[in-house]
Amino acid sequence: METNVWADRPITDCYHFYSDGTICSELFIDVTDYVQAMNIAAVLSFLYGVKILSINLMSNHFHMVIKGKREACRKFSIIFHRQLSRILTSLEKRSLRTSMDPITSEEQLMTTIAYVQRNCIKAGYAYLPSSYPWGAGNIFFTPETEFDHGTRCGRLKRRALLESLNTRIDIPDEWEYDDKGMIMTHCWIDWRFVNQLYATPNRYLAFLHQRNEVATSIKMNCQSRLLEDLNMKELRKKAKEIRKSLIGKELQDCTLNEKLTVANRIWSTSFGYSLKSIVRVLQLDYAVVDAVLGDR
Fold first, then answer.
1. Which residues of 35-47 are buried (b: 16+ CB within 10 A; e: fewer)?
2. Could you give the 3-state DSSP secondary structure of residue 125?
3. Sheet of 62-67, strands arranged across
4. What SS3 class is residue 114?
5. How far apart are CA 273 and CA 276, in angstroms?
6. Would you tell me which CATH number, out of the four given (3.20.20.30, 3.30.70.100, 3.40.50.2000, 3.40.50.720), belongs to the domain 10-210?
7. Taking the model in full, what pTM does it have?
8. Average pLDDT estimate for 122-140
9. CB atoms closer than 10 angstroms to residue 219
């Protein structure tokens, strides 16, 4: 008797892109903030050829699942961070720290999409994720005939496009925007891919109803990665200060021995950084550094 065994396939082109919700009480304050952030995501996804599979903007952070070539996704994340920082800072001083983690398997991809979709409920939203205004909306496993529709972007001239959607980029004429000026999610979120990924509504709902331990695991991983990114920034700053003080050269001009001198100073005086992090910052071979410095 044959059995239908599902195999978890590897994934190499999907990423979980998110911000740190612990460093500010409010990131998005009003409807304008949310609309601009959603439109930035839509326009940049078109500009860089990145597919957005899921999105959720909460009051103090955001989550996305994006798909594309690594360099395109990296540019998308950098420019989204930059443009979002610009519009939010123009309103009020608000902090923004982001990270982008690779997704390595099909099951992890389905779990992460469901986590992003469910995020609004975890934050206290009283209705289904499909009705949350700053998420993907009711587009997964919904007939196209039941999608909401608005005004076609092709009807806007360049100046009107800038005034209405805050972009000079020639987005597709068939895209639509609603009465708030937000580009409608069925135009730019790849709902077809998501539907094919889960294959059936039952499977999609099953992932949405996963145990709390799954969500807790993803959340802890996000916090760990954000802390790691922050530590790397601090380490680069510290390494630069020590290098200027001891060597007086740019990193690319330093010899191996000079880099090892900087590494030794950091390793012997700073207990918050791992040897692997120091190696990455100073562009050294781990085996060489480990052999020279060894244990503390």
1. bbbbbbbbbbbbb
2. coil
3. 51-57, 62-67, 10-19, 98-105
4. helix
5. 8
6. 3.30.70.100
7. 0.73
8. 87
9. 15
